[in-house]
Write a structure and sequence with these properties.
35% strand, 5-stranded antiparallel beta sheet, globular, alpha+beta, Phosphorylase Kinase, domain 1
C-alpha cells in the first residue's frame, strides 16, 4: 500500500486493488489540551482513541447503511485501528458539512450577538472549506458552484443527506440518554454519486449528557459498552 495523505487524526493509504485504508490515530483536534471537534489543530492525544473512534465509526456507518444511505465503508480491523473504504473524490480541496442542533462552539463565536449558548437550531446545515490557513471559511451554495467546488445539484443532495444521516445518528445517541449538539460530516463523489466518507466518531461531534459535554472515549463506552 502507498501513503497518500497524512492527516491530523488519521493517515490514508491506497491499496493495490484501488480501495483505500484509513489508519486511525490517538490524536484529536482541540487547543491547549482541550478537545474541540471544530478546531484546526491537534489539541491532545488520548490513549485508545484510534481504536475507540473506529469502533464508533463502524457502528454508525453500519447503521447509516441500514438506513439506506451510501457510504465508503467496507470493513474495519479494530485491533489495528484500520478501516478499508471505497475510493471517492473529495470536493475541491476538501469540504466539511456541519449539522447543528444547538448553538455551541464556533457558531457562538460567530453569532454570539444574536444566539444564546445552547439555543435550539433545528438541524441547521453549514458548509466550510477545509483550509487551515483561512480557518475553514464558511461558504454558500452559489459560491461553491461559481468556484467549481461542486454543482448546485450536488450541494442539494449533500445538504439533504446531511440532515437525514445526522438524524439517524442523533436518534441512536438519544437512545442512550444523551443529546447530539452538532456533528461534522464529509462527503465525496463516487461511482454511485455523493456518498458519506471519512469517519463518524466522538472526534467530530459534540454530545452532551445532563448538560455536560461527553468526551470522545467516554462516548464510545456509553454507546457500545467497554472500550
Amino acid at each position: 500500500m502507498r501513503l497518500v495523505y497524512k492527516g491530523k487524526t488519521k493517515d490514508v493509504y491506497r491499496l493495490e486493488n484501488d480501495n483505500y485504508l484509513l489508519k486511525f490515530k490517538d490524536d484529536v483536534t482541540g487547543a491547549d489540551g482541550v478537545f474541540d471537534p471544530g478546531a484546526n489543530t491537534v489539541g491532545l492525544s488520548i490513549e485508545g482513541m484510534g481504536r475507540g473512534g473506529l469502533r464508533l465509526t463502524e457502528f454508525f456507518f453500519k447503521k447509516i447503511n441500514e438506513a439506506g444511505f451510501a457510504t465508503h465503508f467496507i470493513s474495519a480491523d479494530i485491533n489495528k485501528a484500520e478501516m478499508t473504504v471505497l475510493p471517492a473524490e473529495i470536493f475541491g480541496k476538501g469540504v466539511e458539512v456541519v449539522c447543528r442542533y444547538r448553538a455551541v462552539g464556533s457558531f457562538i463565536r460567530r453569532y454570539g450577538a444574536y444566539a444564546a449558548q445552547g439555543q435550539e437550531l433545528g438541524g441547521l446545515v453549514e458548509v466550510t472549506l477545509k483550509d487551515d490557513d483561512r480557518e475553514d471559511p464558511l461558504i454558500n451554495r452559489d459560491a461553491l458552484e461559481i468556484l467549481g467546488v461542486m454543482t448546485g445539484s450536488e450541494y442539494d443532495i449533500l445538504k439533504e443527506q446531511t440532515k437525514k444521516i445526522s438524524a439517524v445518528i442523533k436518534d441512536a445517541i438519544a437512545e442512550k440518554g444523551m443529546e447530539l449538539y452538532d456533528i461534522k460530516l464529509e462527503f465525496g463523489r463516487a461511482k454511485d454519486g455523493v456518498i458519506l466518507i471519512d469517519e463518524v466518531s466522538g472526534g467530530n461531534m459534540r454530545v452532551y449528557r445532563d448538560g455536560v459535554i461527553v468526551q470522545p472515549l467516554d462516548l464510545v463506552e456509553l454507546m457500545l459498552g467497554t472500550r
